[in-house]
Sequence to fold (184 residues):
Amino acid sequence: MERLKLFIPLLIFILLAVALYFGLDRDPSAMPSALIDKSVPAFTLPSLADEETPVTETFLTEKLFQGEAALLNVWATWCVSCRMEHRYLMDLAKLGVPIVGLNYKDERGAAQRWLVELGDPYREVIFDAEGSLGLDLGVFGAPETYVVDGQGMIRYKYVGVVDERVWQQKIAPVFHGLQESPTP
Fold:
């Protein structure tokens, strides 16, 4: 019986090695989302474009995603990867892809300057200074991009930088599929 106790550390090591092996085989950008095939969470948040005074502030809601398929792109000025993907988002916007931005846990002035300096690919930008909508969406960080259908249902989530390869191989097939058959 004492000799069997000597094999316990070896057994634990083997179990951990097997778990690590199968974990390394996973795509880190394929982060699961509990919201796939569910509606964009209800929210009422200000538009980034408006000033902070409540009298003039325009509040946006989940109704922003009604009518046509769109991308919801989570970004922030503190996010280095967001700067890398911004140029490609500008290209997508020029092609007519509707993109809604979610400025996540950022400063309004810095975010507004970012869009002036680098260009604005977004049809609208939701200002989520506290991260409440990000929390409801299950955001792990920025950048993250969601494909939302014309009924406001989340159909796909991508974690990481959107570039030509990611767009062509992962996001465009879902997005264009929604355009061809808007009602799933």
